[in-house]
Design brief:
- The protein has 17 helices and 58 strands.
- The longest helix is centred in the middle third of the chain and has 29 residues.
- It is elongated, with a radius of gyration of 32 Å.
- It starts with 7 loop residues before the first helix and ends with a strand.
- About 25% of the residues lie in helices and about 30% in strands.
- With about 1050 residues, the chain is an alpha+beta fold.
- The relative contact order is 0.09.
- The protein has seven domains: about 70 residues; about 150 residues, Sandwich (Jelly Rolls); about 270 residues, Alpha-Beta Barrel (7-stranded beta/alpha barrel), CATH 3.20.110; about 100 residues, Substrate Binding Domain Of Dnak, Chain:A, Domain 2 (Up-down Bundle); about 70 residues, Immunoglobulin-like, CATH 2.60.40.1180; about 230 residues, Golgi alpha-mannosidase II, domain 4 (Beta-galactosidase, Chain A, domain 5); about 80 residues, Immunoglobulin-like (Sandwich).
Length: about 1050
């Protein structure tokens, strides 16, 4: 007779719920607590000297937003009892999914942090040593936040609290039965394991006497049922050859729907829980990446940190992951990604004895083509992620493969394929369920190559981590027939084993050559524009402060400001976290970011100013011009001399007059023909008679002629023609208009700040209401037209600059942005036909299609570019440069730059206010290399700067290869010599010689961590396409 007709599984689920009721003996219910308001909400507050002036009782509600409350009780624990464990149970509030909102707390026992307590961690195991002793329990409750959107009061209830016993036998029956039933849910009835497994648990439960629930007879029969079930399971073969390596984990977003200060507390709660559970589960292995979190814990909770270090030494706790934190990989510069690795690996080595061998980035929104090279040159040999499973159109064809970077470097890459509940996506927050264990294998696409898979389990996003149930279920599943065995294994061991498997296989192992473009969250290239702007400015500012500090040390013997620069870098790196810089956090996170960015900018600017003062000598009517670029070529410089005379002349060191134009703001625009690369030269300022400036530009009736162009505008201020005189061709496409502001309805399906969905293009309008036009500059070097436009809610002011000796058309822009759920782009349809466009990325560039032939093509309808994007034919092209934007789309022959987004969640006020940015149209002969797009974009982003005083003209470093850029000049981390980093950006082999006005006494090549050095006999070497090279140099 079929047992299905008896609804056996349904019956057993009900019985299991009843069994669960008898796991606990609630010996000492706690009815009330002393209470005190924690008004300050300070980081790492302790229960010492808290004045308890209130009471909270069980059943009472408590509420607030970002509210902290202290609860205290003193308990005399009962004596030990055979077959039990002392346990506490505390149900004080609701915690949102993933710990993304709601209640959390930290339990202090006798004044020491003990364990996190929340909705997913209500149990607290206590040692037998507490028996018959008086123990002080103090909880620091946090109400939590609403999880983004409109600030909302969180209401919780003290539902239950008790100290008692955990019946180990009934607990064993409960978890074994639960694992059995969950396994049956994953097996088909025709599976040979299904029937005997169901029969085994059914027979066991028939032995339970339910005539008097809770009686000694009832409890004894549960013990009998457990013996029957365990005996039956021991006899059943495992019959599943697949292995699962289980590593405990808690993903803690450094900021997201909570602030940085909240993260510090989340880390303390989560880590104390890990440590406490390890006392009872010695097999438990835990991984936590992100040295930033360890640095927080070291500062805030040194007692927790000491225990973590001990567990790391024992091998139970794995501090790995590579980067300083799990950074976004779209927006940060190449040098920023290097510093993420440098600071992360340095911390892991110095604090825990070894750097990481793998990069752990489960939740990042896309992966730069530069990463494989950066990782391999930072001691990383494996890369892991999960987020790419969220792709909107295409699933990556493999889950274990070699990823080839743009320079040819390969890194073994593995995707975790644990299925998210009720979803097609994979998760890094496993819950140790049968569905996950079976689905992990079912989803995996490289079964013929590898039969051991990785499961990262534990509550995460907002921390929390593994709970006791997950550890118990891991033990049961490991022995359960019908599903994979589940063994604790560190991620390091797993990845080492995976390398051995891949090296030994005779099966095909795929190689993916190209960026790992994430087909989702495309709005993160644009959301929270101010954050992205500050990131760009501080990245470039740090480059300047570092090379100037090297120079000040060389010239003046001034101590290199190592600690100050490290502090600024850590602010920058921290805010590159994958939910801060992408623009996907709550408003308070960006309030905090503004404070930190301002601090970093002020400190860095002060450092630059001090070094400029140190490096120059006071001299009347002398100005020193500083060139941070790798090349010497004609440059425009805007300066504001102390001499306020109406008419001035400027002369270089050879007393040759320099072209100059006085601007409407009383500054001067001058042109210098050849400032030394990474160096400086001094110019002289002299009063002169009024010299009639002959304009190089002629404007009349919406038409302008410049040395480069003939231009016409329409009544909306849009370009209707840009005729390139030097190349004898039209820049704009036929019958097209350029510099068109396009406003799109931006209402993505799921994630407001994160996403732009392709259907945004269905609703478009132009901002064409032109309020005013004014010619503000018309001289020998520059012509400027000011335009003011408005939409229904926003206003755009532009100063459009044209130059005498540059083809760049610069659009200096200010937007008073008041729109919501709108996307602002600027469009330039150009007379260029090409099937691919080029985009600036870290340490090079990438080509992407301009067509939508396949789903892989149209999935990239919005892509990331750093300082420029370019569309070129063989002999002509057009680049669009920018100083703070990252979102581009180039379809057919239209180049568009995404300027602003207006998300309503998680920050309801995202991007409202004044924005200032600049973009430039840059037509050129040849492709972007021939046209020197890279140089023009750098000059827009990092212009010549000036200081009063004089200096002997010099160049700190030069390189001979025109396709090589110097990325960083800094003091070595160990203080021994100068580190110079460069990269090749044309994608071609070549030779490079490094030269300096100083004498190079030694040069050694090293990796990005400044180790593994190889001495060079001279500073000439070969460079491969897109290769990053790092050298330790000594100068005399």
């Amino acid at each position: 007779m079929s047992i299905a007709m008896f609804f056996t599984k349904d019956k057993l689920r009900g019985r299991l719920d009843e069994v669960a009721l008898y796991r606990y003996e609630k010996t000492y219910p706690i009815q009330k607590f002393q209470a005190a308001e924690d008004m300050d909400g300070e980081i790492a507050a302790r229960p010492n000297n808290v004045l308890y002036d209130n009471e909270l009782t069980i059943g009472e509600n408590w509420s607030g937003r970002d509210r902290y409350v202290w609860l205290k009780t003193t308990i005399t624990f009962p004596d030990t009892k055979t077959g039990t464990r002392l346990i506490g149970y505390f149900d004080f509030g609701n915690t949102g999914d993933g710990h993304n909102s709601g209640f959390e707390s930290l339990l202090f026992v006798n004044g020491e942090p003990y364990q996190g307590v929340d909705q997913n961690h209500r149990e607290v195991l206590f040692p037998d040593s507490f028996a018959e002793k008086k123990v002080e329990l103090v909880f620091r409750l946090w109400s939590g936040l609403e999880g983004g959107g409109t600030p909302t009061i969180q209401t919780h209830q003290l539902k239950e609290a008790f100290i008692g016993y955990l019946n180990l036998v009934i607990d064993d029956l409960y978890f074994t039965s639960k694992a059995t039933l969950k396994t049956l849910d994953q097996l088909e009835e025709k599976n040979p394991t299904y029937a005997p497994l169901l029969q085994a648990i059914n027979r066991a439960y028939l032995a339970i006497d339910w005539s008097t629930p809770g009686s000694e007879q009832n409890l004894a029969s549960m013990a009998t049922a457990n013996q029957i079930l365990q005996a039956a399971l021991e006899k059943m073969p495992k019959n599943f050859p697949i292995k699962v390596a289980a590593v405990g984990h808690t993903h803690i977003d450094v900021a997201w729907l909570w602030r940085l200060k909240h993260t510090r507390e989340k880390a303390a709660r989560s880590f104390s829980t890990v440590l406490h559970l390890m006392e009872d589960y010695p097999e438990y292995l835990f991984l936590q990446s992100q040295p930033q979190l360890y640095a927080y814990i070291k500062e805030d909770y040194p007692e927790i940190y000491a225990k973590i270090k001990a567990k790391i030494s024992e091998g139970a706790w794995e501090a790995d992951g590579g980067m300083w934190l799990e950074a976004d990989c779209n927006i940060p510069s190449g040098e920023s990604l290097v510093r993420q690795m440098l600071y992360g690996q340095k911390f892991l080595r110095e604090e825990f004895g070894k750097p990481s061998s793998f990069l752990w980035l489960p939740d990042v929104f896309g992966y730069s083509w530069a990463l494989p090279q950066i990782l391999r040159k930072s001691g990383i040999k494996t890369f892991m992620t999960t987020k790419i499973s969220w792709n909107q159109y295409n699933r990556m064809p493999h889950d274990t493969f070699q990823w080839r970077g743009m320079d040819g470097t390969e890194i073994l890459t593995h995707f975790i394929t644990v299925p998210e509940k009720n979803s097609r996506i994979s998760t890094y927050n496993g819950k140790m369920t049968a569905r996950e264990l079976v689905g992990l294998w079912d989803k995996y696409q490289d079964k013929e190559v590898n039969q051991e898979l990785l499961l990262a389990y534990g509550y995460g996003d907002g921390g929390g981590g593994v709970n006791r149930e997950m550890l118990e279920m891991r033990r049961r599943y490991d022995a359960m027939p019908g599903i994979p065995e589940v063994k604790p294994k560190s991620a390091t061991t797993y990845f080492n084993d995976l390398h051995e498997t891949i090296n030994a296989t005779d099966q095909y192992v795929h190689t993916w050559n190209g960026e790992l473009y994430f087909e989702y969250h495309r709005g993160t290239y644009t959301s929270q524009a101010f954050t992205k702007k500050m990131n760009r400015k501080i990245e470039l500012g740090l480059r300047n402060s570092e090379w100037l500090s090297v120079l000040a040390n060389l010239k003046q013997g001034i101590t290199y400001p190592t600690e100050k620069l490290a502090g600024i870098w850590q602010i920058l790196l921290r805010n590159q976290f994958h939910d801060i810089i992408p623009g996907s956090s709550i408003k308070e996170v960006y309030d905090d970011a503004l404070i930190e960015y301002t601090e970093a900018a002020v400190e860095n600017n002060a450092l630059i100013s001090n070094q400029l003062t140190n490096l120059t000598t006071d001299a009347d009517q002398k100005i020193t011009l500083w060139n941070s670029s790798t090349w010497s070529r004609p440059r425009y410089i805007e300066i504001s001399p102390d001499n306020q005379a109406a008419h001035l002349a400027f002369y270089d060191e050879n007393n040759t007059p320099l072209p100059a134009q006085k601007l409407a703001n009383n500054a001067w625009l001058i042109q210098h023909p050849n400032l030394p690369a990474l160096g400086a030269a001094t110019i002289s300022v002299k009063e002169t008679a009024n010299i009639l400036e002959q304009p190089s530009f002629h404007y009349k009736n919406n038409q302008l002629e410049t040395p480069f162009y003939q231009i016409t505008w329409n009544e909306a201020g849009q370009f209707t023609s840009i005729f390139d005189k030097k190349n004898n061709r039209q820049v704009l496409a036929e019958n097209a208009r350029g510099n068109v502001f396009q406003l799109f309805e931006d209402k993505p399906m799921w994630h407001d700040a994160w996403d732009i969905d392709l259907f945004y293009q269905e609703k478009q309008k132009e901002i064409s209401a032109l309020d005013s036009v004014e010619i503000t500059e018309n001289g020998p070097l520059q012509f400027t037209m000011k335009q003011v436009l408005h939409s229904e809610k926003s206003q755009i002011t532009q100063w459009i600059h044209f130059y005498h000796e540059s083809p760049e058309i610069r659009f200096e822009t200010e937007v008073d942005w008041r729109d919501r759920n709108q996307l602002l782009k600027v469009a330039f349809p150009v007379a260029v036909h090409a099937s691919e466009a080029s985009y600036d990325i870290q340490f090079g560039n990438v080509k992407r299609p301009t067509h939508w032939n396949t789903s892989w093509d149209y999935a990239r309808f919005e892509t990331v570019g750093h300082q420029w994007a370019d569309l070129s034919e063989k002999n002509y092209g057009v680049s669009l440069l920018n100083d703070s934007k990252y979102g581009y789309d180039i379809k057919d022959s239209t180049i568009r730059l995404t300027l602003l987004k207006a998300a309503g969640y998680p920050d309801p006020d995202a991007d409202l206010g004044i924005h200032q940015f600049t973009y430039s149209l840059y037509p050129h002969q040849g492709d972007f290399l021939d046209g020197e797009t890279v140089q023009a974009a750098w000059e827009l982003n990092n212009p010549i700067f000036s200081s009063n005083g004089e200096i002997q003209s010099f160049s700190l470093f030069q390189v001979t290869n025109p396709y090589v850029m110097i990325d960083s000049i800094k003091q070595a981390e160990d203080g021994d010599g100068i580190i110079l980093r460069l990269h090749e950006f044309a994608g071609t082999h070549g030779e490079v010689t490094i030269a300096s006005d100083y004498t190079i006494t030694s040069i050694t090549e090293c990796n990005l961590l400044e180790e593994n050095e190889t001495s060079l006999s001279n500073p000439t070497f070969a460079v491969a396409p897109f290769e990053i090279k790092t050298y330790r140099i000594h100068l005399a």
